C-alpha cells in the first residue's frame, strides 16, 4: 500500500501507521484524512492485523488540523473539513482491535485528538501536548471537547483547553493523558513490546472486551451490565474461550485464532 501522506507497514500481527507530512508537522489535511480513512478501513477488516500502532515518527506526532486549509473556511466548509475527521476518528475508536499511539515531539490540537481515539498512549520524554485552538478562535472540535474530559476529568480538560498551554510528557502522565513515558529513543520499542503482548491475546475476546468497555460511554450502568453479560455469553460459543480455559487446565500457553 502506498500513500502520499501516511505510511503503513506490518510486522507479524502488528500494523504500524505513520503520519507522513513532515514539512507541515503532520498537520491533518483533507488528503491525509482521506488516506487515513482508506487504510483504517482495510486494517479493520484484515484479521492478520491484531494490534495497530499509530505514530508520527521520531520528530512530531501531529501539530493538529491544517490551519492553512481552515483559514478561509466558512461554517459550511468547516463542517465539510471536520466531518471526515470525526468519521475516521470514530472508525479508529471503534476498531475491534487494540490501538496504541506512540507519541514523540508535539501532539497539538487535532494531534492529541487523534491520540485520544487510540486505546493506549505511550509518550516519548520529549513529547509535548496542548490544545492551542483557543488562540486560533476555535476549540478542540475533532472530538476533543467530548473525549478529553471523559479521560482526564472536566476540570483538567478545561484548564488545558481554556489556557491553550502546552504540557510535557511527565505532566501528561500525571493527569492520565498518557499511559507511560519512555526515553525518546525507546518509544517505538515500547509500543511494539506492548503490541506484541496484546497480539497474543484472543483477538475475538479483545474486540468484544473493547466494545463492552466503550458501551459505558453511551449507556447507563444498568443497560451496560446487561450488554456486558450478553457479550460475555457470546464468547462462550467461541474456540478462543475453550482454548484459553483448556490451556490453563493443561498448564500451557493458549494459541488464540480469533474464532
Ligand atoms: N497547520 C498547518 N501547517 C502547520 C501546522 C498546522 N497545524 N503546524 C505547523 N505547520 C507548518 C508551519 O506553518 C511551517 O510551515 P512553513 O515551513 O511552510 O512555514 C511548518 O509546519 C513548520 O512549522 P514551524 O516553523 O511553526 O515549526 P516550529 O518548530 O517553529 O513550531 C509548532 C512547531 C509549535 C508545532 C508550531 O508549528 C505550531 O504552533 N503549530 C500550530 C499548532 C496548532 O495551533 N495546532 C492546532 C490546530 S487547529 C486543530 O487542531 C483543530 C482541528 C479540528 C477542529 C477543526 C474545526 C474547523
The coarse silhouette is globular
Question: Which structural class best describes the helix and strand composition?
Answer: alpha/beta
Label the CATH architecture of the largest domain: Alpha-Beta Complex
Low-confidence stretches: none
The CATH top-level class label of the largest domain: Alpha Beta
Number of domains: 2
Number of strands: 9
Calculate the mean pLDDT score and round it: 97
Counted by DSSP, the helix tally is: 11
Percent helix, as a range, is 40-55%
- CATH homologous superfamily placement of the largest domain: 2-enoyl-CoA Hydratase, Chain A, domain 1
Name the bound molecules.
Answer: octanoyl-coenzyme A
Sheet with most strands: 6 strands, mixed
Any idea what the radius of gyration is? 19 Å
Classify the beta-strand content into a percent band.
15-25%
Structure write-up:
This protein has 259 residues and is α/β, with parallel strands linked by helices. The chain folds into 2 domains: 194 residues, Alpha-Beta Complex (2-enoyl-CoA Hydratase, Chain A, domain 1), CATH 3.90.226; 47 residues, Lyase 2-enoyl-coa Hydratase, Chain  A, domain 2, CATH 1.10.12. It is built from 11 helices and 9 strands. The strands form 2 sheets. A 6-stranded mixed beta sheet has the order 1-2-3-4-6-9, with helices on both faces. It has a 3-stranded mixed beta sheet with strand order 5-7-8. Helix 1 runs parallel beside helix 3, helix 4 packs across helix 5 and helix 9 packs antiparallel against helix 10. The mean pLDDT is 97.
Amino acid at each position: 500500500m502506498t500513500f502520499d501522506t501516511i505510511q503503513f507497514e506490518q510486522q507479524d500481527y502488528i500494523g504500524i501507521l505513520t503520519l507522513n507530512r513532515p514539512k507541515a508537522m503532520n498537520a491533518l489535511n483533507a488528503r491525509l484524512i482521506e488516506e487515513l480513512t482508506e487504510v483504517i478501513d482495510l486494517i479493520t477488516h484484515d484479521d492478520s492485523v491484531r494490534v495497530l500502532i499509530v505514530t508520527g515518527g521520531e520528530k512530531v506526532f501531529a501539530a493538529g488540523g491544517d490551519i492553512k486549509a481552515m483559514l478561509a473556511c466558512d461554517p459550511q466548509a468547516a463542517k465539510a473539513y471536520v466531518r471526515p475527521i470525526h468519521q475516521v476518528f470514530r472508525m479508529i475508536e471503534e476498531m475491534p482491535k487494540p490501538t496504541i499511539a506512540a507519541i514523540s515531539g508535539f501532539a497539538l490540537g487535532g494531534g492529541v485528538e487523534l491520540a485520544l481515539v487510540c486505546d493506549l498512549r505511550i509518550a516519548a520524554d520529549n513529547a509535548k501536548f496542548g490544545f492551542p485552538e483557543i488562540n486560533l478562535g476555535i476549540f478542540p472540535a475533532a472530538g476533543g471537547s467530548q473525549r478529553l474530559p471523559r479521560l482526564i476529568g472536566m476540570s483538567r480538560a478545561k484548564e488545558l483547553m481554556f489556557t491553550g498551554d502546552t504540557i510535557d510528557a511527565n505532566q501528561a502522565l500525571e493527569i492520565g493523558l498518557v499511559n507511560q513515558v519512555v526515553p525518546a529513543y525507546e518509544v517505538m520499542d515500547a509500543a511494539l513490546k506492548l503490541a506484541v503482548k496484546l497480539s497474543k491475546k484472543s483477538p475475538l475476546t479483545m474486540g468484544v472486551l473493547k466494545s463492552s468497555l466503550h458501551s459505558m460511554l453511551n449507556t447507563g450502568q444498568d443497560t451496560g451490565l446487561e450488554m456486558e453479560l450478553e457479550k460475555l455469553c457470546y464468547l462462550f460459543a467461541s474456540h478462543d474461550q475453550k482454548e484459553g480455559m483448556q490451556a490453563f487446565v493443561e498448564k500451557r500457553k493458549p494459541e488464540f485464532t480469533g474464532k
